[in-house]
Amino acid sequence: IRAIDAVVSRQPDVLSLSLAGPPNAALARVLETVRARGIPVVAAAGNGGAKSKPLYPAAYDTTIAVTAVTAKLNIFRRASRGDHVDFAAPGVEIAVADGRNGLAKRSGTSFAVPFVTASLAVLRAQQPARTIDDMVGELAASAKDLGEPGKDSTFGSGLPDASRLCAGPADQLLLPVSR
């Protein structure tokens, strides 16, 4: 909670949380405050498997829950499921920096979170006054439906089309380098 407070005090465009566990009333209250400030919170759905109880903070209504898919757009075998899942993104066998070996392949819903976080950051940079619901709606409208038609408990609204967010001349993106 102190870490979230420290980040939020710097007024980020988006907050990313790659942690999952049982409900926590104090964390729920903090995330309500973060959302009320207009900061989208993207959270990993968790790696508890198909029969797992919902994991938090992703299962809170105040967050945008992301699950992981393979390169062939199949659900990650250990991904948690539930009506709270909003989007799917690549999260299986993702190359990440490894302090010992240079690069390593890792899997999990935490590795999918940055894809949705970056998409929301681009939307926020393009139109800073947009609401969280507007941005999530735009991502959902662009998403490739991966499961049952419409939003479902495995893939949420599907895989957002982040490539269209970056289309056009580079000078129109206006991405901030840092704050």
The whole-angstrom Rg is: 16 Å
- Percent of residues in helices comes to 10-25%
User: Which stretches of 5+ consecutive residues score pLDDT under 50?
Assistant: none
Looking across the biggest beta sheet, what order are the strands in?
1-2-3-4
- How does the overall form come out from the CA principal axes? globular
Mean pLDDT over the full residue set: 93
SS class: alpha/beta
**Amino-to-carboxy terminus distance:** 22 Å
The tally of beta strands, per DSSP, is 6
Helix count equals 4
Helix and strand sequence = HEHEEEEEHH
- Major sheet details: 4 strands, parallel
- Taken as a percent bin, the fraction of beta residues is 15-25%
Description of the molecule:
With 179 residues, the protein is of the alpha/beta class. The longest helix is centred in the C-terminal third of the chain and has 14 residues, at 113-126. The two termini are 22 Å apart. 38% of the residues are buried. It is globular, with a radius of gyration of 16 Å. It has helices at 2-8, 25-36, 113-126, 132-142, and strands at residues 15-17, 41-44, 64-69, 85-90, 94-98, 102-106.
Q: What are the SSEs and their pairings?
A:
Elements: H1 2-8, E1 15-17, H2 25-36, E2 41-44, E3 64-69, E4 85-90, E5 94-98, E6 102-106, H3 113-126, H4 132-142
Parallel strand pairs: 1-2, 2-3, 3-4
Antiparallel strand pairs: 5-6
